[in-house]
């Protein structure tokens, strides 16, 4: 398929996933975890996604989009046992890696959606999320590929509906152009604002930030990351 041919496929957020869904063969521990642990954590297509149904004792519900190997998800879920976390990741090997971490930490406050995050977002109740993390979404750096990016005016609108007022969308990228792309869409959104508190806060990761393999590679290759704290405020998005 040519890159342009991708334009006919559903976009990320509309059920489409342009990246890989599977990779190398899982090793035996991962296969066991996929068979035995994933069914306990997986979110199904018809599940009730209210906080009460997912995590009855959780004080809040948070979402991570594209968790990769799950380093952040496992870290934050382990450090915030009173919160419930939903992690979205279409890549099966990423899910398997996360399950190893979840198993080692005996996490019970995480639900996994093994698919396009957009399909899950639209099923969440309005104003139900206390925070959303989108760290290093697939960059699609070539001009003709940019339509594949997860961030769009449309996805911001859909995220705005499910995020409570005053909560934060944390966005990280090592691709300058993706930072600019996202800021342009945030600036024209009536639902979000980016208001840095210091001149260089976009260069600093958030407190309690575990680095990932992806981030380490970006740093090694001379692409310093950009960290944007984007606040949900303004108009209702119903
Ligand atoms: C570059 S990786 C970054 C992974 C991780 N967030 C990190 O910081 O290491 C981007 C991830 O987004 C996932 N992804 C791609 N399209 C997605 C979609 N539509 N919904 C959810 N995740 C998606 C990919 O499978 C991949 O694991």
Characterise this structure:
Strands 3-2-1-4-5-7-6 form a 7-stranded mixed β-sheet, with helices on one face. The protein has 238 residues and is α/β, with parallel strands linked by helices. It has one domain: Vaccinia Virus protein VP39 (Rossmann fold). Helix content is 32%, strand content 18%. The site of S-adenosylmethionine has 21 residues, from loops.
Which structural category do the helix and sheet elements fall into?
alpha/beta
How far is the first residue's CA from the last residue's CA? Answer: 37 Å
What is the tally of beta strands? 7
Number of domains: 1
Quote the CATH topology: Rossmann fold
| Overall shape | globular
Give the strand order of the largest sheet, numbering strands 1, 2, ... along the chain: 3-2-1-4-5-7-6
* Hetero ligands: S-adenosylmethionine
- How much is the radius of gyration in Å? 17 Å
CATH superfamily: Vaccinia Virus protein VP39
Keywords: Methyltransferase, S-adenosyl-L-methionine, Transferase, tRNA processing
Protein name: tRNA (guanine-N(7)-)-methyltransferase
Pfam families: Methyltransf_4 (PF02390)
GO molecular function, one term: tRNA (guanine(46)-N7)-methyltransferase activity
């Amino acid at each position: 398929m040519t890159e342009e041919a991708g334009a006919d496929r559903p976009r990320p957020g509309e059920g489409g996933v342009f990246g890989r869904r599977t990779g190398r063969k899982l090793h035996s521990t991962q296969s066991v975890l996929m068979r035995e642990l994933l069914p306990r954590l997986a979110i199904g297509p018809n599940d009730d996604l209210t906080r009460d149904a997912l995590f009855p004792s959780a004080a809040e519900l948070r979402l991570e989009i594209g968790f990769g190997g799950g380093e952040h998800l496992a870290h934050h879920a382990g450090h915030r046992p009173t919160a419930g976390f939903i992690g979205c990741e279409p890549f099966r090997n990423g899910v398997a890696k996360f399950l190893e971490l979840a198993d080692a930490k005996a996490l019970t406050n995480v639900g996994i959606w093994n698919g396009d995050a957009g399909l899950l977002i639209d099923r969440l109740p309005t104003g139900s999320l206390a925070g959303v993390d989108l760290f290093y979404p697939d960059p699609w750096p070539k001009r003709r590929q940019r339509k594949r990016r997860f961030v769009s005016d449309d996805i911001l609108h859909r995220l705005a509906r499910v995020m409570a007022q005053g909560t934060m969308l944390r966005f990280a990228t090592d691709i300058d152009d993706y930072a600019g792309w996202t800021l342009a869409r945030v600036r024209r959104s009536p639902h979000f604002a980016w208001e840095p508190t210091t001149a260089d806060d976009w260069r600093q990761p958030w407190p309690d930030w575990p680095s990932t393999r992806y981030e380490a590679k970006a740093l090694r290759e001379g692409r310093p990351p950009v960290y944007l704290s984007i606040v949900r405020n303004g108009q209702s998005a119903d």
